[in-house]
């Protein structure tokens, strides 16, 4: 029982980090989209790359690939 609780306490922070990375990534992606719509393609790419890094850390591969396209 103690082993199961120890595992749970170790996994909860990892889940929180993953959610945090996804939230930051989605904010970067939205900024990238906004810049892209305004024709600022170079800065949009900067934000897409930032978003991609966070999606990769969160292992959200579908959104990671969207940042690469």
SSE inventory with pairings:
Layout: H1 2-37, H2 41-57, H3 61-68
Task: Describe what this molecule looks like in 3D.
α1 packs antiparallel against α2 (41-57) and α2 runs antiparallel to α3. It is built from three helices and no strands. It starts with a helix and ends with a helix. The chain has one domain. It is mainly alpha-helical and 69 residues long. It is elongated, with a radius of gyration of 16 Å. The mean pLDDT is 82.
Radius of gyration in whole Å, from Cα? 16 Å
The geometry reads as: elongated
H/E element sequence: HHH
Which percent band covers the strand fraction? under 5%
Distance between the termini: 46 Å
Q: Describe the sheet with the most strands.
A: none
Structure, briefly:
The protein has 69 residues and is mainly α. The chain has helices spanning 2-37, 41-57, 61-68. The model has no long low-confidence stretch (mean pLDDT 82).
List keywords for this structure.
69 residues; 3 helices; mainly alpha; single chain; elongated
């Amino acid at each position: 029982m103690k082993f199961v609780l120890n595992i749970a306490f170790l996994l909860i922070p990892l889940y929180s980090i993953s959610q945090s990375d996804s939230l930051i990534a989605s904010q970067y992606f939205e900024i990238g989209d906004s810049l892209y719509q305004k024709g600022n393609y170079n800065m949009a790419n900067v934000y897409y790359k930032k978003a991609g890094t966070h999606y990769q850390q969160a292992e959200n591969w579908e959104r990671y690939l969207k940042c690469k396209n």
